[in-house]
Structure formats: structure tokens, C-alpha cells
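Deliverable D5.2: sample structural annotation.
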Amino acid sequence: MKLLKIILAAAVISGAVLTLATAKPEYAKKEGKPCTFCHVKMGSKELNDAGKYYKEHNHSLEGYKAPAKG
């Protein structure tokens, strides 16, 4: 029984940590952009310049200027 409680507690903690560490699909939906607009690759927590801007500007892309390609 004690082992079951430990496993259950670990599962709950893991679920909470994973929820905090993942991108939120509602952000992509809100902005009308794919996840990779802000993340370096799909499934990655690492942010590119757009993602850093979004995080630093209260979850808004307003005023964001994408760097010119070339």
C-alpha cells in the first residue's frame, strides 16, 4: 500500500511538471500561428526570437517584427 501511495504521488507530481513545461496550444490558436513560430522545433521547450518576444511581452506578438530573411 505504501508503494502505491509513492507511485501515485510521483505520477501527480510528474503530471504537474509536464503541464508547466509544455507549450500551450491555446497560444498557437490565439495567435493563428503554428507552434514552430515561437519554438525552435516541434515539441521543444526552447524558444526562438518570436517566442522570447511573446514571453517577455505578456503573451502578445503585438509589435513583433520578424527578422528579414536573406
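Annotation notes: Helices lie at 2-21, 25-31, 49-56. Residues 24-65 form one domain.
The annotation will be released with the project's public dataset once the embargo ends.
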